Amino acid sequence: MQNLSVEGLGPQWIRPAPPMLPVLDGELIWLNPDSNHELLWDYGMCADTSRGAVVRDLIAKALKGPLAPAQQEQFVLELAKDVKLVYHCGLTPSKLPDLVEHNPLIAVEVLSKLMNSPEISEYFIVLVNMEMSLYSMEVVNRLTTTVNLPTEFVHMYITNCIASCENIKDKYMKNRRVRLVCVFLQSFIRNKIINVRDLFIEVQAFCIEFSRIREVAGLFRLLKTLE
Amino acid sequence: MEVKDSSDSSSATTALAGSKDGLANDEGNLSDAEGLAKEAAFLFQNRRFEECVDVLNHLLEKKKGDAKVLHNIAVAEYLREGFTDPRNLLDALNKLKEQSEKLAHSCGEQIESENSSGSDMVPGSKSNSASIHQSSAINSSRVVYAQDFDTSVTLLNIAIILYHIHEYSQSLSVLEKLYQNIEPIEEQIALRVCLLLLDVALVCEDVSKAAGVIQYLEKSFGITHAVGQVDSGCSTQQQSNQGMKIAITSSVTAPDVSTTDSSGNGNSSDNALGRTLTDETLEYETLYSTLDTVSEKLERPISNDNLKLSPDQEASSIDLKLNLHLYKVRLMLLARNLKAAKREIKLAMNIARFGDSSTALLLKSQLEYARGNHRKAIKLLMTTSNNRSDQGILCMFNNNMGCIYQQLGKHHISTLFFSKALKCSTSLRSEKPLKLSSLSQEKSLFILYNCGLQYLHCGKPVVAAQCFDKSKPIFYSRPIIWLRFAECCLSALEKGLLGKSDFSSSEGDVVKVHVVGSGKWRHLVIDDLSLTNRYHKCLGEDAVVIPDGKLRLSVPFARRCLLNALYLLDYAENLQSSASLSSKEETNQSASASAKSLSQKNTVTSDSKAFNATSASMPSTNGELKETKGGTLSSMTLQSSISLHEEMRRKENNMIRQAVLANLAYLELSLGNPVRALSAAKEILQLPDCSKMYTFLGHVYAAEALCYLDRVGEALEHLSIYVSETNDVQLPYSDEDMEKWRIDKSGDAYEFAGTQNAKSSEVQGIIFQKPEVARGALYVNLAALSAIQGNAEQADMFVNKALSVLPDNPRAVLGGIYVDLLLRRTQNAVVKLRQCRHVRFFPAHLTSSS
Fold first, then answer.
1. Which of B768, B787, B199, B380 is CA-nearest to residue A2?
2. Is A16 in Cβ contact with B777 (below 8 Å)?
3. Do A15 and B614 touch (CB under 8 A)?
4. I need a labelling partner for B391 at 20 to 30 A (CA). Which of B86, B615, B745, B843 fits?
5. Which ipTM did the prediction report?
6. How far apart are CA B777 and CA B769, in angstroms?
7. Which residue ranges does the record annotate as region Disordered (chain B) (predicted)?
């Protein structure tokens, strides 16, 4: 540029200045009154914690064997008195299978209260992976009537149920299990817990494989009506 | 049901009493401590802190080093001393928290081992009450452990203090930790956590977090809608859970699993009963959130309800309802979801009839302000400020008035209101007795930002920068404040406040002509304006030092600010893209629309909460869509608010980025760094949906930088975009483009047209140049490029066009003279000089500078 300049004058260039950004919507701070957040007293100080102990004790017993009806009732009452107690009752996901086998009703009670817990998915994983039994099915079935279970969990559980039928060698046991699964599935379908379309192929394959069993035929008919 | 309920509670109390007895026999010391604790709590509630601290110290002697006692002592002492030093308390609480966490950690393992041995000790004993008591005594020690190390109250108090001293991001991180594991936390404390988290998230403009919390609150506190009094500790808890209890007892005594489909027949099985109960509450929810004119229907479900509420509880549950509505309004206003906000505020106003509606009115005023109905907003604001003696309210009133008048373009009135607000705010600090809440009411930092913006737009960059500097503690993480700082510098530069006279554009407005010699030797020596295009002394000497601050306004400072802004913009973008990615995955997985709003940090929690969200919004077993309609509706509006907010954020950030880059390129050119200027300018041009005005600036800056780099050909490419085949230059942008940039509002801003003119007349330096002026600049620059390339004829053509558009622009005139001289038309040049109004002739006592 310089060497072209005529007697010291260079070519002229206009450099437009960047404009200021206009005030954005909501950039000006509008003030609203605050909620009053006062400092809190910790009421947990030297508090009576024996009530939690009763529940912990009952859970410990429930892991060993069936509780007597009176104990069950007491457990339910204690839990109902304090919603947060369930988080301090000493149950962990690894202990769940024992509880399911010995006290399915208590397990349902605890799990339905733990639905909001951050750990609930761990409990579900344990429940899906534990050995299939009448009790675990009972727990799942009852849970479906009290809470909304995540769909993936229900699907995975059903898949495991069906697989468990195929793995049983003993013929009598196998038939029993198949009939059980059938009733279980029918209840799910009737109550619209699952959408059959999501599991159609699996359920159909199950029906065809065990078509000689009467309950299976019933399930198959139900499937056909839904088609 | 009634009978069962009473039997429940009576048996519960006996059980409680029994266990207490057992405890008292074993550990008399403990019950003694319990008594003292109760006494202290009572004194605390009655605000008798002096005595309370005494009792607590007494208690501490019995339980040395007990974290909870120490915690309560710290809080009570702080209250006793009248909130003198919140930071001290903060330190104390933080220490206690660490201590408890350490202890909890070391005891965690111990508990595990004790647990296993403990369960061995009670082998299969049947319902023997003696053994229960015995074992409860054994267990009590470890239960005490588990609950003693619960730091939720301490953490919440830490978050509360941080909130009051305006350390919002820190408070947010503490609260998030609590919120992620909120279920086990006691109901009352959990509620407090949620409410504070909402406030903090809204201040931090984290819409999706706030929406998540609102949904959680609606789900866990809304449905059982019998939330106990917030004030009276844990005593109300028992009643508040009645709804749950009924459902649970019934499900246990339900006869058989196989009879689940019996819910249809009127067999009055307990199970069905439990369900209808929840149906009812759900329906109640639906009513609440769907109907606008619910007032009379609203009361029916409460009175019909099986859950007998004391008037107090009813009031506080209505309070919570109202608060939730108000939070939603705030969220929607933040997200600019104005239609939804309008609906929501109606609901809130209906409830607010029962009590204090000033907050609702303020929000309504804000809504009208956001919609551009400024007169209505002022009217509403006037009605809220009845209580003019309260400095806190007065401060809000003045500030909000300032906002409205700013939008109306009445900048002097606006400034007046803001400074009034500031005065009120600072007087709060000196108010006696000092309260913790007056700390948080002290909103100076927010008002200062408003002031800064106002001053900047009134052309007072130095004061503006001073205000921004003070408001930095809250806004430092937002890119916009850094852009505003840079704008302050540029504005100061333009006004000639920075550096010597050689840069200021006020000087650049005149062509200085020195008359040298006389008679036939007389020469005209013209100062070249191009020299002033450079900012020479960039080493910080030419900074304006802001009084009472360490801040120095200078061009290098402006550059640093712009780089800060760019960094923050990049950061926000990365955050957003990753968030939307993960939320997409989540929605695919759980197929739930509301899952998106929940926190994605902790996969476990977010998973389970997503499940909850699905369960809340999915039709339940009997497939009745109706009952969940309310829930889904509210979650849908929240959802749409979140996406609206994201969209708005994206747009705003895009605008900010364009401005930042343009400023940066301009500064780099001024600092003589063409390489950096070029890269900034190119970045502008690569931005997706960049406005035409900034594209124009990008091209011009890039061309100039390329000229400095001796790449004239490329420079010409940048400018020739605007040149048609017939050598005409089109307008680089239209008036509509400028309109679009200015107003991106919804249609109902009917007052806007009138205010437009007021705005542009009173405000300096905001608006873009008119398209014609921009075209003039293009002509001048094209002329320069043509001249450099030796095409004097073309240069002449461009220059003439430039002069026809910008006859008074000294640069255009000089350009014309330059071309005239190139073409040896000296006479023409002299004529041009004479005709130009912006020429100053100087007598020739100075030596020739050319």
1. B787
2. yes
3. no
4. B86
5. 0.72
6. 10
7. 1-26, 104-130, 255-275, 609-630
| Chain A nearest CA to B834, separation (Å) | 18
Rounded Cα–Cα distance for residues B341 and B356 (Å): 19
Could you tell me how far CA B603 lies from the centroid of its own chain?
25
Strand (E) or helix (H) holding B173? helix B168-180
**By three-state DSSP, how is residue B427 classified?**
helix
Helices B295-304 and B338-352 pack at an angle, to 10 degrees, of: 60
Residues of A in contact with B124 (CB under 8 A): 61, 64-65
The pLDDT, as a whole number, for residue B597 is 35
Q: Please give the average per-residue pLDDT across A111-123, as a whole number.
A: 83
The pLDDT score that the predictor gives to residue A111 is: 87
Q: Which residues contact B603 (CB under 8 A, 6 or more apart)?
A: none
Q: Is residue A182 within 8 Å of A215, Cβ to Cβ? A: yes
Place of tokens 């400072």: B557
Over range B89-114, report the average pLDDT: 73
pLDDT at A191 over 70: yes
* CB pair distance less than 8 Å for A30 and B75: no
Q: Each residue of B322-377: pLDDT tens digit?
A: 888 889 999 999 988 888 899 888 888 887 776 667 788 889 999 999 988 999 99
Residue B369 CA neighbour count, 13 Å, CB half: 30
DSSP bridge partners of B525: B514
Show which of residues 110-149 on chain B sit within 8 Å of chain A, judged by CB atoms: 115, 118-119, 122-127, 132, 135-136, 139-140, 143-144, 146-148
Q: What is the SS3 assignment for B499?
A: coil
Least reliable range by pLDDT among B92-106, B334-348, B376-390, B756-770? B756-770
**Which tokens hold the place of B452?**
């800064």
One-letter-per-residue 3-state SS of B765-796 = CCCCCCHHHHHHHHHHHHHHHHHHCCCHHHHH
Q: What is the DSSP string of B299-365?
A: HHHHHH-SS---HHHHHHHHHHHHHHHHHHHHHHHHTT-HHHHHHHHHHHHHHHTTS--HHHHHHHH
- The kind and range of the H/E element at B552 are strand B552-553
Chain B residues with CB-CB distance to A60 below 8 A? 115, 118-119, 122
Considering only CB atoms, A54 lies closest to which of B63, B132, B505, namely B132
Q: How many CA atoms are closer than 13 Å to the CA of B486, on its beta-carbon side? A: 32
pLDDT at B458: 87
B-chain residues near A141 (CB < 8 A): 257, 260
Contact A37 B192 (CB under 8 A): yes
Instruction: Give B301 to chain A, closest Cα distance, Å.
Output: 23
Best to test chain A binding among B23, B156, B251, B656 (most A CBs inside 10 Å): B251
Distance to chain B for A163, nearest Cα, Å = 23
Between B630 and B25, residue with greater pLDDT:
B630
Name residue B92's amino acid. A
Residue with tokens 């008679």: B519
pLDDT band at B137 (very low <50, low <70, confident <90, very high): very low
User: Helix (H, G, I), strand (E, B), or coil: what is residue B729?
Assistant: strand
* The predicted structure's pLDDT at residue B678: 94
CA distance B725 to chain A (A): 23
Q: What is the pLDDT of residues B431-456, one digit of tens each?
A: 665 666 667 667 888 999 999 999 99
Position of tokens 């050319």?
Answer: B850
> To 10 degrees, the CA torsion angle through B803, B809, B810, B815?
-30
CB–CB of B456 and A11 under 8 A?
A: no
Does the beta-carbon distance from B22 to A50 stay under 8 Å? Answer: yes
Q: Is the pLDDT of residue B43 over 70?
A: yes
Q: What is the pLDDT of residues B153-170, one digit of tens each?
A: 889 999 998 998 888 989
